[in-house]
Amino acid sequence: MKGSLRVLSHQASRVKRQLRIRPQKRANSTLSFKKGYYIWGSCDQGQLGLGREYDVQASPTFHEPLSAIQPKLLSVGMSHTLALGNDGKLYAWGANAEYQIGDGTTQERCEVAETSSLPRGTEPLQLIAGPHQSMAIVKEGYLKDVIAWGLVEENDSVDPKHFPEPARFPALKIYSDEIEKIVLSPSYSHYALLTSGDVLHFGKNLDPESPSFHSTPVPIQGLKSCLGKGEKILDIVGGWGHVVALTNACRVITWGSNMHGQTGHGEDAPKYASKPKVLDLANGTKVTAQRIIAGSTHTMIVGTNGELLVFGSHRDGKLGLGRELDKDIKMPVPLAALKGRKIRLAAAGCDHSAVVTEDNELFTWGFGQHGALGLGNLQDQFSPQRVSLPFEGQVEDIYCGMDLTMVSTYN
After folding, report:
1. Phi-psi sector, 333: left (phi>0), alpha (psi -120 to 50), beta
2. Rounded to an integer, what distance in angstroms lies between the CA atom of residue 100 and that of residue 341?
3. CA dist., res. 191 & res. 220, Å (int)
């Protein structure tokens, strides 16, 4: 099966059908756990880790199995999740058609369960649950390495390459001791951020003018020319073909696919931005960025003032700009519906968005037909809607997969 078919598979699955909705259940108590987890959305591939009796959990529900392992590391991918338990064991559940669970099979896993161990003597520093693959940045003595499993290489000119169980990833070996973060894309165009602030690309080059495949990482051409004296990249995120970078000067740089304006450079920008470019966050104002978020074809930026900026595709309402809007937004604009609220946390699935305010309010919007908005229904929402949280603690973090949302909270 070619990568293009895999990339489109989530859209193909979004057909009108009768969904079995899991009834809302109140948690008995979260007080026995230092940190509690709540989850909602689609379970069609077991990605909630709550079994397969139902297709959808439409409201936040307490996740006792996940809370019980008290994860030290957690990564929510498109349709599977990885967790390093407090017991030091690796857990995984959800979609597994490409071996991304890492248990040597392609059987989806519907409950939180231990999977194959990472190589002996390695200590996980970061888990990365991608669309069809998984990776871990590990420490081994004084050195670091990258471990991978699942669909590790998809090149249209050769057969796909799979690692059924965790194994060392040779493509990044030369840089492994410097890698800080890895971004895995459904388009098989992947990136690595180094401690130096350099960004490397490996996998498919999506530029239609020069399509190619990089089996070994290459630097991003033109990125350094975007940086001022002493400026470096601190973080990168990616959508289904576009990349967003945040610098230590609170500036944002974007490049890649721009079919819907998701790079944010205006109506005259090319459909594919082959060279990185600094983003004008708010039409020349002094807004600066503290957090960057990428959905499949939309982008969100949290300003240092707590304001939320959005741009890209508004399909299914994922920008939150109202039902009347029927076009892409190709430059950053403030999300007026949240004016006056300071955003503390933000996340995006493929086609939905979620934020938590400084007042601990959770808002979601966008594609809701598989329950990912947590509003108790299966409707799309074109503007932010407040989610009723079944707990009193502070939201510590928020995670989004393709059609699911999860929050962690401290008691």
Report:
1. beta
2. 38
3. 9
Query: With 70 as the cut, is the pLDDT of residue 2 above it?
Result: no
Residues with Cβ within 8 Å of residue 229, at least 6 apart in sequence = none
Nearest C-alpha neighbor of 236 from the set 205, 190, 269, 271: 190
Q: Are 204 and 256 in contact (CB under 8 A)?
A: no
Contact 235, 246 (CB under 8 A): yes
Q: pTM for the complete prediction?
A: 0.92
Mention every residue, 6+ apart, whose C-beta is less than 8 A from residue 26: 62, 390
Q: What's the sign of the alpha-carbon dihedral 267, 273, 277, 281?
A: positive
Cα separation, 406 vs 67, in Å, equals 12
Distance CA 311, CA 332 (A): 5
Range 241-266 burial, b when 16+ CB lie within 10 A, else e: bbbbbbbeeebbbbbbbbebbbbbbe
E strand residue ranges, 220-288: 233-238, 242-247, 252-257, 272-278
Strands 329-334 vs 242-247: parallel, antiparallel or unpaired: unpaired
Determine phi and psi for 131, rounding to 5 degrees.
-70, -50
Query: Residue 126: is its pLDDT beyond 50?
Result: yes
Q: What is the mean pLDDT of residues 80-100?
A: 97
Which residues, in sequence order, are bridge partners of residue 203? 189, 214
- The contacts of residue 289 (CB under 8 Å, 6+ apart) are 246, 250, 251, 252, 281, 301, 302, 303, 304
- CB atoms inside a 10 Å sphere around CB 218: 11
What number is the average pLDDT over the span 164-192?
94
Residue 150 has pLDDT above 80, yes or no: yes
CB atoms within 10 A of CB 234: 16
Beta strand pairing status for 362-366 and 352-357?
A: antiparallel
Cα–Cα dist 80/108, whole Å: 9
Task: Give per-residue pLDDT as tens, 20-42.
Answer: 666 665 554 455 778 999 999 99
For residue 131, give both structure tokens. 């669309």
Overall size of the chain counted in residues? 411
Q: Are 47 and 109 a contacting pair, CB within 8 Å?
A: no
Q: What is the pLDDT of residue 1?
A: 35
